[in-house]
Design goal:
244 residues, seven-stranded antiparallel sheet, globular, 7 helices, 29% helix, alpha+beta
Length: 244
Amino acid sequence: MLSALVSLALAFALAAIAQSPQHVLSNHPELHGIPTIHESAVQARRILNLSSIATLSTVFPNHQTVSTLENRPEDLGGAPIGLIDYYASCDPTPCEPTILAISIATNFKNARAGSNVTLSLRYHPPIDHPPGDDIYTYSPANLPRFSLVGYIESIPGHEVRKYNTDRCFFKRHPEAVAWRPGNAIHESWWARLVVQQIYWIGGFGDRAYIGWIPVQEWRGVTQEEVSNARLVGEHGYKKNRSPQ
């Protein structure tokens, strides 16, 4: 009898362990208290506003003539590459990252050859953040991250002048003034990532939304919402939702 009870308890324990990873990595339909898609869009826009460095990714073209000085391998066609890059959230479209494109850089070569582009970001809590509720509060696996999918377009000169793109960008990246358009080092130009799709992972699936955010929702977030939003670890953050 005791042996049977032990076997039954062990079976239940193993079943719980088997279900646990799926429970925290996906949105279970029976869970309540998960942020809405709009709330997740606000959080993502907040991260875009707080940060200024992200991973820009493109795909090497199947056929492209490159300088022999680059010494590029011949079999890179279709291979993705991701490199960190500067960006800033500037007017008139703060939801579409402004980028100082360097023509010689690999990602911008790939973009000119027709590659789609993704910009991937993750949230970094303040260094002086308060203690977490548990060991998972500030775990990178439980913190928000997302990718913006789209394409690179040049910002016309009249728009650069009207909205003072230089000032906005160099406020976040003062050292980048050395590469401003017209510099003597490398050819460069102002560009923006035109966002077409947003994939969001807000954290563990039992407490955060995981999935696609419609671009209309992304663009519809107001600057007031971005300014008022607070993420875990920020001063003023309130945990007003909890998984059930």
